[in-house]
Amino acid sequence: MSRRIFLKTLGLAGVSSLGNFTPPPPSDRAFWLTHLDQLAGPVLKNLAKDTLKATMPVEGKTKDRPQYTHLEAFGRLLAGIGPWLELSDISDSAEKKLNDTYFSLTQNALANASNPQAKDFLNFNKGAQPVVDAAFLAHGLIRAPRLWESLPEGTKTNVVNALRSSREIRPFYNNWLLFSAMIEAFFVKYGYEYDKMRLDYALRQHENWYKGDGVYGDGPAFHWDYYNSYVIQPFLYDILTVVAPKETVYKPMLEDVTKRAVRYAAIQERLIAPDGTFPVIGRSICYRAGAFQHLATMALANKLPKDVKPSQVRPALTAVIRKTTENKDTFDANGWLRIGLYGAQPALGEGYISTGSLYLCATALLPLGLPATDPFWAEPAAEWTAQKVWKGVDLPADHAL
């Protein structure tokens, strides 16, 4: 499938021998689709067959991770590929076939994940961790209304019950408040009863934790890490985008959150070095390209800073994805992600990191939800900020919000 996507994108479908002809590199979109296929295949094919728990390895440092890792993998993957699953009008036949395949697999995966009688019925309420990945699952469904509406009523009921069951979990006093809020935002979007206090408390606490220049604390304290991108800013923006039209009291907050989000997107774009590397700092660094979920979110929403073009964000994110997956030890022999940032580096993983956690890297793929005709994909690649500066281009100075 990956090779067919490459050839189709290059206009070379059906060519059996290229002889001495050297084709140009595949397009960025083809590369991203190949990466999506590589990430999604093992997770969705097994969960759709009710064999995820039997098949998926559980790498990690603590014995409790098998309770959580399967929902981690599914929820985080869906949060990343949801916008692409939402696409209904795909002109490229190879991509359309891939999309149709994963759309169907995700429908079946949701059925098994939420069915108490299934072998792969996932843990939504035992321990603390499930509220995190129930939220990522809810986020993925918010990003893919077409998928949600396609589900049989029985599956919808099971998913809603599973998400509601996570209310038993008390989130920690930090970014975890947004996990509870995202689940309630799912209920808001699809017309179910929702808990206003879970929403309001999370949103107002993060207002209190704003530190300035587009950055929030993770709780009362500031942390040097990527949690503004892993969770805080994408969750705030998407929760408020769903809730503010129905709870108009939040419209001014959405305006403020959006201004900060645009500024943080500018910061993120500048963090990407000319070769696609980025500072290895803070916890959860094994989420790889997921460190740039926020930049990907703003690209998907067409909310990039005015001096940051989509045509420079695309190659920048492509470089990050390439760099964080080029090492031969990134995946095991059966195609599952391994703990690390560049290959297999288990010491980089905290105690809460396991195989399923790593699929947060799929959130870098959010712009695949933009059609191939969108400027993000259609415009010629442009150099991003670090490339320009480190080749001597004279650029205006950066300024705080």
UniProtKB/TrEMBL annotation:
Domain DUF2264 span(s) in chain numbering = 28-384
Q: What is this protein called?
A: DUF2264 domain-containing protein
Q: Which organism is it from?
A: Arundinibacter roseus
